[in-house]
Every structure is written in structure tokens, then in C-alpha cells.
Amino acid sequence: MAEQVAAEIVARGLTRVMLWGHSSGAAPAIETARRLTERGVRVTRVFIGAQLLGTADERGAAVAELTALGDAEIAARLTADSGYTELAELNEAHAEHIGAAYRHDCVAAHRYLRAALQSAPPKLAAPLTVVVAADDPHTAGATERHRDWLLLADQVELHELTDGGHYFPRTRPAEAARAVLRSAVPLATS
Fold this sequence. Notes:
The chain is an alpha/beta fold and 190 residues long. The chain has 8 helices and 4 strands, in the order H-E-H-E-H-H-H-E-H-E-H-H.
């Protein structure tokens, strides 16, 4: 996915971008930033939403758990945990398809980040902002643990929303947008 996104950004002629990766999207955002930098696109910031780096063992355990679950089980958990109640309204085949896609994305992200934890790649040139909601149990301890991302970037900042849960871009869109806008640098007019 990172290759496809990087190629599309380059094809559009963009020379300066910021990237957002939410939860399991953190891994493709980081890899996309690497690939864009290699192609001469200036990545001014990478935002990591609702994700802490964790440990290689935690990443491995998450892969094992997800691969042991069936598609229907994953879809049921998403319905219960995410607040996406509309998932319960889908027919069984569609819900299972979403469960399989979720597993695929999460397992790929866990494996990417586990590999980075086991053998740190070169650090990103771009600063990294970790954006979390204070009430998200998945990012408990972010005040200290956000610094773990220093393994992958020289500059790491934390932006904590008062609330909004794990899916705060959906529940608190204005606050999530402010996290990005406070880092945006206006382009010079020509």
C-alpha cells in the first residue's frame, strides 16, 4: 500500500505533504513517508493517531491473537468495541469480509512495527506527532510511552485530546483537525 500511495502522490506532482496514519494505519504512514523522502517529496510531518509503538513481543502476541480469530468474531468485536453499530446491520458475508480486511491490515501493521522494533530502520527526517484521546484504553500511558516512537523519528511530540476514544477522528473531528492544523505551515504564495 505504501508504494501505491507514494506513487500517486509523486504522480500528482506534490512536493510537500503531511501524512496521517490512524491506529494500524501508522505503519503504512511511516513507510509511505520513507518512500516519499527517497523520491524527493518533503514530508513535513507524520501524524500517528491512536497508536503507541509498544514492544516486539506485544506486536507478536497481537498477530497471534488476530490470526486465531475467525472473520465473524473480528466483525463482532469491531461492532462491540468501535461504536460502528452499523456493522451489526450488515449481512453475514459482508461483515466477515470486513473482519478479514481488518485482520489483514492489523496483522500487516503489527508485523511491520515488530520488524522495526527488532531492527530499527533509519529514522524519519520528518517530525512525528502522536495524537491520542485521554480516554482511549489502547493508548493508556501515552504521556510517557509516546516517546517510544523516538526509535523511528528524531522529533516526537504528543497531542492529547480530552476525550473521543480510539476512533476520535469520527467522534471528535474538529479536535482531530486542530491537531493537524496547529502543525500546518502555510505555503508561500507565488
